[in-house]
Structure formats: structure tokens, C-alpha cells
Amino acid sequence: MHIDLRTVSITPLRQTYNHIAERMGADKTASRYLEATMDLQAETNFHYRSTWDPQYEIHDRKRTRIVMQDWYDLKDPRKYYYGTYTRARARMEELADADYKFVETRGLAAAYDDAARQTALAFYVPLRHVAWGGNMNGLYQGDYGFGTAIVQACIYAGMDQLGIAQYLTQFGLLMGGREALDAAKKDWLQAPQWQPLRRLVEDSWVVEDWFELFVLQNVVLDGALFGVAYQEVDASLTERAGPVVSMLLRFQIEWFDEVSKWVDSVMKTAAAESDANKTLLAQWYRTWRPRVVEALAPVARIALDDDGAPAVARAMAAVDARMVKAGLSV
Amino acid sequence: MDTKVKTRLNLRERYNLMTRDLDWEPSYQSIKDIFPFLEYEGIKVHDWDKFEDPFRMTMSAYWKYQAEKERKLYAIIDAFAQNNGHLTLTDARYLNTIKLFLTGVTPLEYMSGHGFTHLGRHFKGAGPKVACQMQALDELRHAQTQLHAVSNYNKYYNGFQEWRHWHDRVWYLSVPKSFFDDAATSGPFEYILSISFAFEYVLTNLLFVPFISGAAYNGDMSAMAFGFSAQSDEARHMTLGLSVIKFLLEQDPDNLPIIQRWIDKWFWRGYRVLTLVAMMMDYMLPKRVMSWKEAWEVYGEENGGALFRDLGRYGVKVPMGWEQACKEKDHLSHMAWNVFYNYGGAASFHTWAPSPQDMDWLSSKYPDTFDKHYRPLWEHYAAEQKAGRRFYNATLPMLCQTCQVPMFFTEPDDPTKICYRESTYKGDKYHFCSDGCKHIFDNEPEKFIQSWLPVHQIYQGNCFPADVDPTQPDFDALAEVLRWYKIRPGEDNMDYADSPDKRNFKAWREQATTN
Amino acid sequence: MATVFIALQKNEESRAIVDAILADNPQATANNEPAMVKVDAPERMVIRRETVEQEIGRDFDLQEIHVNLVTLSGNVDQTDDEFTLSWV
Q1: Would residue A41 count as lying in a domain?
Q2: Does B62 touch chain C (CB under 8 A)?
Q3: By CB neighbour count within 10 A (0-12 exposed, 13-18 middle, 19+ buried), where does B203 fall?
Q4: Contact B17/C at CB under 8 A
Q5: Residue among B243, B46, B29, B71 nearest B125 (CA)
Q6: Pairing with C58, which of B125, B326, B453, C84 sits 20 to 30 Å away (CA)?
Q7: Is residue A128 part of a domain?
Q8: In angstroms, rounded to a whole number, what is the distance separating the alpha carbons of residues B453 and B235?
Q9: 27-56 of C, contacting B, C-beta below 8 A
Q10: Residues of B in contact with A59 (CB under 8 A)
Q11: Would you say residue B24 has pLDDT above 80?
Q12: What CATH number has the domain bearing residue C20?
């Protein structure tokens, strides 16, 4: 039914929900991101305390030593709410899926240089377990975080890690079959080169302060690991044996660039809030940095030999630079 | 390594490699430290791998199919808004059901997401973890798509604009809020039993079908599109609920009595929250879908009956309170709407008495009870309203300590007698609407004495703006509470008949259809 | 005797799924309701990927059912080739 409403003036009573208008300082059209995010989490008049942790309210600022006047200052520069998040990931998924099909149907995996294949499998496939650890940590941050702005982004990052773990699984299956997964798991559990990293992952699972865990996982570990795995090692393998492996790492490569924007934004805003925050963030960074370097060195060696440790240093330096830019003294 | 021979893995094998094979037994930290909440409820799990997720979705599949659903949904939401879709509603009275939904249910979606996030981290088995994580995302989806679908109504009608503020304070909204606070503060196994099983399986159709069908019947394409889109997520949630309860029952016979206790508690709490749905279906929808009684008979008695017959082989019994729910089906909606009619001055949506046509429908759907017990009440109210004395109750109702619904429920076998139950705990007396709610309290008194009861809070003086002076001669307690509630008298509350909603809807419709 | 059912949004894609169900499950019945189709069957219902592919004219992954699914009743079991609902 066509209604010609040109002559009808239906003036809205308001443009958005009141709490959104208040935050914007005026009643004007609000973005979907704002309407979906601001004050969605309850903050007051909770009815009960948890039976399993009664020292805290259901949502409690005190679960971290970081202090924010307004936790909604930690808005996501990517403006991810559920709709934009899933659509962005579906686009990435479609491209990754096409690349996997391309490689598979053209026999490019089978034709890949065998020595390079061994290196790729030995280095990348155990990382699926690191990503599983990252999934758990994203959910931890989402569980204890405060305010929908940071919480939803942490959950998305955690689910991304599960996706990455599954892409690495698919990588292993395509390049080496079931046996490759079994061998990688054996290395993860037993091989000496992997134990410092595995210990680090398991230690991360008992970090209590969710913001400290954010720094450990999202800043230090992912920052250095992705630099080593998806820049340094990727480049090395491409030089050795062509771009087939690189095609199969597409999701992780694109993900890291994108997620770093969010991570840097969170660190910058939290640091700018107060000297206390800035000091605490730098302290956490300095605590976990050497653990990450120590854990990644033997792993990088698997793929890069003597260039392993320098590669880790380069990747770590890149993260240092990002943090300096975000206002931290690291 | 021979990579040319590739055994084709089936869905189940692939899914296991994509989930449980990612996990391992830790060496450097203890299970107790990594998963601290798994033992204190007394539930015994010997083998987490026995939980099998029937849907077996990888993240790739999740992103792909959910994104497709989102694209379709937002296309409809946009089209509806662009074309002033609200003008094709049957009647603006309908919007009061959406106000109830936004203020009562939408915040619960987020709290549900929070609960599943907690389980997604703190359950040990990969199968349940991943299923819970995906549900956490889904619940976030529901909260956000609801906010977006309703955003357009908020622009033109009242009663949507302060949903956050109202959910945390207004008297009837503590019913749903306390329900989910209760779940979120329970241990992980009780949480999944209460929400995945009792709420998302046993009771879900009683919440969603009335609202979605109500939307479809009343021209609300936006909410209907949301509803259908969300329902496909609900199918996964329901399945998690059913598979997890079977998993827990099969793990250890000692789990049965704990689970039965939770089934009893959460059926009753969930059923009490559905009071709001009952009155919505019977009194608030201009074009009605079915009666609460009919919905209960199909989705409660029939579906629930089949379910509990299926679970009977584990020793599970029909929930305590089931029989009372069956007895109440002829009364629930009428008692409830009567209370909202009474307290319409303090609600952030409009209320009204049923018209003669409405009452004929109610008579036909409730032949045993409506004309006998409830029609006289409504006819009396209508006469009073016609004489300019539309009744607003100036006192405050007593709320049940457990479910927090006003205590208007009648004895199961005597609809002329209000049901009162009480318990004394540490020297204080607590009041309940039913045996079910008293029973819940008596099992966990330390929890339920914490309830933030809106009416108690008002009487304690905690619900006035900071600038209020009760010693002033013109102090008007109700007016000050409304100010604290941010409910604007004559705009957000009171009878639909005199509301801006009604005037505006009529004027805009006329503008759109006349020259 | 308990009924299993699946309800799908009424559109072009789900029509193929419904037709496939009716073809493979002789005792199933389809009921049209506003905006959705509900297919009931006594005790058990199997949706076969192959049959859906014949109806829809392209490759079909059974997980695509999620896009149009409204609700269901019964125990779920899913493989690459079959999606089964049953009360047995």
C-alpha cells in the first residue's frame, strides 16, 4: 500500500531512549551501536549476591583495580554490536572458506613443499591450543568485566579465538590430516619447546583481575604471538615455498589488524583516565612481557631457527611501540 | 606422512576435533583453581565428554548463518521504520504489550547472556562450554535486536524511553528482574537447569509464542520479524536444555534429588513470571491470538506432559506446583489485569477496562469463571469510569517475598479467598503468595531475605528524589515516587482512554488516510 | 503417543524443506499458520539432505535449517546427511 506522506507531518516525540540522549547531551538520532550498548548492563538494585562469590555484586566495578568514572568511555572504535560483529565475521569467513576450497580443489596442499609443510604443521597446529586458552580468557573478561562496552568486545574476542582455533584445526587437517592434529597435541603436551607457552596459558587461567588478563592475553601474548606467527613465520614460509600457507592463514592475519585497533583504543582510554591506571597498566605489561618472550622464543625457533629469538624481539618491539603510542611508559 | 589419503570425517568427528580436542588436562595449574565452581552444588560429573551437542556448529557456521539472519531482520526493521509501519498496527493499545516486553524482558536477555558467559568460562567440558558461549552471544543478540526493533516505537509513543531506569526500580518489573538475578547468582549447574531447561525448554513457548503471534496478529512487522529471527536461536537453546538435563541425570544417580529440587523451584518461579504474559494475552492485545488457558493447555499441559513422560525414566517427577498452575489457568489473567488496572497510576504503560466485545470473548474462552467471578468487577469499573470516577488504588500492594508479584493470587481451590502464606526467619516475618514461593524461601532463606522489594523500599523512604521534604504540608508520596520512577503523570501512565498515545495514533492515522 | 514437530518461517527456502519432509515421512502433516509452517509427525521425523537438495535445486547444508527455524519439539540428532527429531 503506497501512502503519500509528503503532506503529513508526523513529528516524533523523541529521537532516542532518554539515557542515550542524556549521554549524547541532546535528544538526537543515535547510532545503532549506542542504542545497543549504553547502559545495557544493570548496575543497581540487584536482588541477591552470588552463592559462589558473595563478596561481589552480580556486576561489580571492584573486580578490577582499574578505575573508570564511566566504563562506557571504553567504546569500541569498530562499533561492534552483535549485528555488525557477525556480519563482519561472516564476510571474513566467506573469504577464508573460498581460500580453503581453492587450495583444496586445486591440490595445492598436496603439492606444497614437504619440508616447508613439516615446518608449518609443527609451528602452527599446536597454536590451536593457545587459541583455546584465549577463548577461555575472553569469556573470563566478559564474565567479570564492567559495562557492556568492554564486555561485549571481550566476548567477541573470545569467540574469535575459538574461530581461530578451528581454522588452525582445519589447517592441520588439510595440510597433514588427522595425524597432524595428534602430533601437534603431543608436542603441546610434551615437547620441551612448547612447555613455557603452555605453562603461560595455564597460568593465565588463574589470573584474577580481568583487566590484568586483558593486558596479558589481548595486548602482550596476542600482540607478540600474532606478530611472530602471522608476519614473521608467514613471510618466511612464503619465501621458502610460495603463498599457499599464507592463504590458509587469512582469517588470523585480517583479524589481528582489526582487533589491534580495539585493543589499543582500550589501553589508551584506560591509561588517559588517571595516573593510577596508567601506572597499573604499565606494571602489568612489564610483568607479563618477559614471560611471553620466554615462552615464544623456543616456539619461534621451530619455524625460524636462529632468527626465532630476533623475530620475537621484533614482534614484541612492535607491541611496545603500540603501547607507547597509547600513552604507557613501557 | 601420506597426505594423499584423506579419510572423510563425519560431522561428529569433525566437530569433536573442533571442540573437545582443543582442550587438555592442565599440568601447571589445578582443575580446582581453573574451575572453582564445579563442586560446591553437589552435582557429580564423571565424564564431561558424554555431553554431545546435537547441533555441532563451528564458529564459521555460526557467523555465516547468524549474519544471514541479521541481514534479513534489519532489512525488515528498516523498512518498517521507513514506512511508518506503526500506523498499520491494529490499535495503539497493542504497544503497551511491547512496553511491558522492553522494560521487563529485554534487560533479562542481557543478564541471561551474562549467565551463559559465566558458564562458557567455568564449565569444564568443551561441549557444554561452547554451547553456552554461543548462547551467550545469542542472548546479547536478542537484547540488542529488541532495542533496535522497538527504537522506532520509542520515537512516537510513550512508555519506552526510560526502560533501563524502570527495569531497576518499578514495582512490577522486579518480578522479572529478581527471576534472572536469582539465576545469575546461583551456581553453574543450577543456572543451566533453571534457564536452559526450565525456562528455555519447559516454559519458553509460553513466553514467545504469545508475544510473536500477538505481534503478527496486530500488524507489528518489526517485533514479529524479531520474534521469528530469535526463535531459531531458541531452538538451539531448547535443545541445550533438554540435552544437558539428560547428561546430568545420566552422570550420577545422586544428581536426581538436586535436579528435582531445582525443577520444582524454577518451574514455579518461571510460572509466576508468566503471570504478566497471561494478562497480556487476554487483556492487552487488541487482536487476540488465543487465551492464556488455551496456551497453557497446548504448551504447558500437552508439551510439558510429553516432556515429563520422557524424563520419567530417569526418575524425574512433574514439578511441584504443576497442578496448581493447571487450576489457576481459568483465573490467572483476570486477577493479574485487575491489579494492573488498580495500580495503573504507577505503571509506565497504559491500562484499561475490557470493552463489552472484549468481555464477550473472555466469556467464551473462560465459560466457568469469567462471568461468575470477573465480569461484575469490570462492569463496575466501567460504570465508575463512565461517571468520571475511574478507579486508581492509592495504596501499595504487598509483594510476595520470593516471586515479588503482588499478593492477589487466590487459593487453588477457592477463587474467593486470597492466598497468604508466611515464614518467620531470624525474628522477621516474610509473606508469600503460595506454597510454592514459601517452599522456595524456606529452602534458601539467606538468599531470599536479600530481595529488593519495590514496595518495601517505597515504605522505607528509599524511593524519593533527593530534593523531597516529607515534612511539607503538600507532600504527596505517590507523586514523589512517580517523579523518582521518572514516570510522567498523564503521559506514561494511567488509562489508555486519555493518553497521548491514543490521541496521536488517531491523529496520525487520519492524516495518513484522509485528505 | 507423542508428536514431534518442526516449525519454519514460511518462505521460498523453507518450502523445499517442508516438501522434503513430507516426501520422506509419510505420516507427517503440514499445517499453515500465520507466517509459518508447522510440520507434525508421530514419534519421529527425518529430514534428509539429499531430498532437500532435490527440492531446492542446489547443494544444501542441513545447518542452513537454522536460518528459517522457528521452533521444534523432540530429541535432536544431526549428521551430515540427516536431521532427526524423535521422542523414542
Answers
A1: no
A2: no
A3: buried
A4: no
A5: B46
A6: C84
A7: yes
A8: 34
A9: 34-36
A10: 114
A11: yes
A12: 3.90.56.10
Complex ipTM, two decimals?
A: 0.97
C-alpha cell at B394: 492509592
Host domain of residue A285:
76-325
Task: Tell me whether residues B60 and A96 touch, CB distance under 8 A.
Answer: yes
Grid cell 522489594 is found at: B453
Q: How many domains does chain B have?
A: 1
* Strands C36-42 vs C29-33: parallel, antiparallel or unpaired: antiparallel
Residues of B in contact with C11 (CB under 8 A): none
Q: Please state, in angstroms and rounded to a whole number, the distance separating the CA atoms of residues B8 and B284.
A: 56
CB A109 within 8 A of CB B3: yes
CA distance B450 to B174: 13
* Residue B250: count of CB within 10 angstroms of its CB: 14
DSSP letter string over A8-37? -----S-SS-HHHHHHHTS-----HHHHHH
pLDDT in tens, B329-362: 999 999 999 999 999 999 999 999 999 999 999 9
Q: Say yes or no for a CB contact (<8 Å) between B217 and C63.
A: no
Which of A82, A100, A117, A181 to probe by mutation at the B interface, max B CB count within 10 Å?
A82
Residues of A with Cβ-Cβ distance to B450 under 8 angstroms? 47-49
What are the residues whose beta carbons fall under 8 Å from the beta carbon of A43, sequence distance 6 or more?
A59, B168
| Helix, strand, coil percentages in chain A from 3-state DSSP, rounded to 5 | 75, 0, 25
Q: How many domains, in total, are found in chain A?
A: 1
Identify the domain containing residue C65 by its residue range. 3-86
Helix (H, G, I), strand (E, B) or coil at B62: helix
Higher-confidence position of B74 and B513? B74
Asked if the structure places residue B148 within a domain, the reply is: yes
Is B174 in Cβ contact with A132 (below 8 Å)? no
| Chain B residues whose beta carbon lies within 8 Å of the beta carbon of residue C2 | 306, 309-310
Tell me the residue length of chain B: 515
Confidence of residue A9 (pLDDT cuts 50, 70, 90): low
Q: In chain A, how long is the greatest CA-to-CA distance?
A: 77
**CA separation for the pair A169, A181 (Å, rounded):** 7
Q: Name B31's Cβ contacts closer than 8 Å, sequence gap at least 6.
A: B25, B124
CATH code of B63's domain: 1.10.620.20
B to C CB pairs, distance under 8 Å? 67
Residues 6+ apart with CB under 8 A from A42: A58, A59, B107, B110, B111, B167, B168, B177
State how far the Cα of B130 lies from the Cα of A240, in Å rounded to an integer: 37
Subunits adjacent to chain C (3 or more Cβ pairs under 8 Å) = B
- Indicate the pLDDT class of residue A160, thresholds 50, 70 and 90: very high
Return the pLDDT at B489: 97
Residue A12 lies in a domain: no
Q: Would you call C69 an interface residue with chain B, using a CB distance cutoff of 8 Å?
A: yes
**CATH code, domain with A145:** 1.10.620.20
* Residue A5 located in a structural domain: no
**Each residue's pLDDT tens digit, C10-68:** 888 899 999 999 999 999 999 987 778 999 999 999 999 999 999 999 999 999 999 99
Question: Which residues in chain B have Cβ-Cβ distances shorter than 8 Å to A206?
Answer: 29, 33-34
8 Å CB contact between B181 and B174: no
Is B42 a member of any domain?
Answer: no
**Quick one: cell of A251?**
582469517
> Residue B440's closest CA among B453, B427, B451, B426?
B451
Q: Which residue has the higher pLDDT, B203 or B192?
A: B192
Residue B35 domain-assigned? no
pLDDT tens per residue, range A183-221? 999 999 999 999 999 999 999 999 999 999 999 999 999
Q: For residues B232-251, give the mean pLDDT.
A: 92
**Chain B environment of C60 (Cβ under 8 Å):** none
